[in-house]
Amino acid sequence: MNKGIFNYVLFFSAVAVFLFLGLQSVQALEVKLSGQVNRAVMWVDNGKDSSVLNVDNDNSSTRFRFTGSEEVSDSVTVGVVWENEFQSNDSSKVDVGQDNDGGSEFNDRKLEAYFVIPYGKISIGQGDGAANGTTEEDLSGTSVIMYAGVNDTAGSINFRDDDDTPIATVGSTRSNFDGLSRNDRLRYDTPSFGGATLSASFTNGDAYELAARYSGDFDGLGKITTAIGFVNTNDRSDPEYTQIGGSVSWLHTSGINLTVSSGARDIDDADRDPVNYYGKLGYKFDIHAIAVEYGMTEDLSQEDDKSKNYGLAYVVKPWDGVEFYGTYRAYSLDRDDTSNIEDIRQVMIGTRVKF
Amino acid sequence: MAFMGLTMKTSLKLTCKVLLVSVITLGLWGCAGRPFDPPRADEIPKEPGVFTKGADGAVLYDSNKERQPAASSSQMPRASSGDMQQPAVASDYEEYEGYRQWLLWKKSAVGTPEYEEFQQWREWRKYQEWKKQK
């Protein structure tokens, strides 16, 4: 797609919305506060040493959020989202040997305004890029502690060799090739056509994202959700890359569920083409959910790298807004020019409390 | 051949995946399941919290409630007789609404067995008070 035309389409769409709003009377306004605390204890062993760490679970970090929406007319709703996370000892930034509380980080996640009109939804500000989450569809009920984004709980843990020399972090060798996360963007979502939506967003550095999503509940078959996303970073990344990824998650009425995710990146002026595969099989019953996973990223840090993991997770929701969880995960790295890279083993138990 | 910036090598690798997901998506769409909003792994769950009943958290402000006619107690006529025991109410407005309903009932109920029973109950209560005073 021509980048210039794409930008113009988004710009004029936004202008059209503002014109469409006109001078309407206020009908209904709601302002809401919500948030969550998600804390865990992690035991991690890199093959040479181990640590026990108190962390903030970065799969779904501790945060609070204000949302407000107002029906300015029968056909137009204007809303705002303001969401900040407040993490002490982010689980994606810890490594074996850490002996303090790490950093406390107050980060903006979403600062956006949106307009819902009969022709879709237009969002402006910091928020999800169109492709964000497209490789992370997950109906297993265990994503609070185990999902396709393995770096959220292990990203900074170093693989080490026999001599205790750091080789690479898990995060440098693994990716689920999701979208550009949250960014300052202009985004458009079509209305839902029987559960299917198309999305596009344009962000700084001339980067853009495209996505298609579908979610449907079938009586005998259960629920199915699927998404596919495309990213072109243009100048936003050095080196530039294009990326495509998607995922499908199916929750059968029996509680058995299956999740598959895959993605690939084409990096400018690089011989390697990283690719990721991820699968999860689970069972959900009553207040319980269990699942096993397997994932592998190839060629991300170096050509012929194979960074893999498998894991097991359990989540229980005894009360509204309260989850307890536990997981065991093991990570390994195969690299051509390096032998005897130790596996990493990890256990996490914790709780997420929503308020 | 290039597809949206992807090289031939990558596009070949990805074409099958793209087609597979697209076919699944279109196939499911064609089956017309009921749309639902799937959960996001990294987001706050869309469900009641420990302190809140709504899926979106605590309502700090709701203009619909704000616009309801909240008459003050000084503006409201009081139920002159303490004969009818009203259930506890949440606000002056609701209490006033209850009072109006009671007046309507009283007007329409004259002569009915319920009204007669109410009158007998009033007499019985007066009798109880008189007994206490003696």
Task: Outline the fold blueprint.
The complex is a heterodimer of chains A (355) and B (134).
Chain A: H1 3-21, E1 28-45, E2 50-56, E3 63-71, E4 77-88, E5 104-117, E6 120-128, H2 151-154, E7 158-160, E8 166-169, H3 170-173, E9 182-189, E10 196-203, E11 207-218, E12 222-232, E13 241-251, E14 256-267, E15 275-285, E16 288-298, E17 306-319, E18 322-334, E19 344-354
Antiparallel strand pairs in A: 1-2, 1-3, 1-19, 3-4, 4-5, 5-6, 6-9, 7-8, 9-10, 10-11, 11-12, 12-13, 13-14, 14-15, 15-16, 16-17, 17-18, 18-19
Chain B: H1 8-31, E1 58-62, H2 63-66, H3 92-109, H4 113-133
CATH class of chain A: Mainly Beta
Provide mean pLDDT of chain A, rounded.
92
**What is the straight-line distance between the termini of chain B?**
107 Å
Show unreliable segments of chain A.
none
Count the beta strands of chain A: 19
Q: What's the helix count of chain A?
A: 3
Q: What is the beta-strand fraction of chain A?
A: over 45%
Description:
The complex is a heterodimer of chains A (355) and B (134). Chain A has three helices and 19 strands. By secondary structure, chain A is mostly beta strands. Chain A has one domain (3-354): Porin, CATH 2.40.160. The longest helix of chain A is centred in the N-terminal third of the chain and has 19 residues, at 3-21. The model of chain A has no long low-confidence stretch (mean pLDDT 92). With 134 residues, chain B is mainly alpha-helical. Chain B is built from four helices and one strand; from the N terminus they run αβααα. Residues 1-6 and 70-89 of chain B have low confidence and may be disordered. The chains are: A mainly beta (355), B mainly alpha (134). Chains A and B meet through strand 1, strand 3, strand 11, strand 12 and strand 13 of A and helix 1 and strand 1 of B.
